[in-house]
Amino acid sequence: MTNAASSLPTWRRQTDLKEKGKASRMSGVRIKDVAKLSGVSTATVSHVINKTRYVSDETKRRVLGAIENVGYTPNIHARNLASGRSRTLGLNYFGHNQPILPGPC
Asked: Which of 20, 38, 70, 91 reaches 20 to 30 Å from 56, CA-CA?
């Protein structure tokens, strides 16, 4: 699988970024690319990553090999956008000496 990354466009090759020491969190490698390299659907790649359904050992090995080869990491922002929830809590804090409404009511 060492040549599998060569089927990706140059700007998406995580291996190229690693070699140049410019690997970043936003590598541009998508789940679609992993699916293409491993010869399966994006749903199968998702099932392997999330362990949501049974996937044969041989297919699992191909998918995990492609993930490792191209340096795919799930994008948490894309996951939150697709699911409609971020699991983030927002909090406003007013200092203990600060009134919520300024001045007399």
From this structure: 70
Which structural domain, as residue segments, surrounds residue 20? Answer: 4-81
Amino acid letter at 103?
G
**Measured between alpha carbons, how far is 59 from 48 in angstroms, rounded to an integer?**
9
pLDDT in tens, 27-44: 689 999 999 999 999 999
CATH of the domain at 60: 1.10.260.40
pTM of the model: 0.58
How far apart, in whole angstroms, are the C-alpha atoms of residue 75 and residue 46? 12
Report which residue type is found at 94.
F
Distance CA 67, CA 71 (A): 6
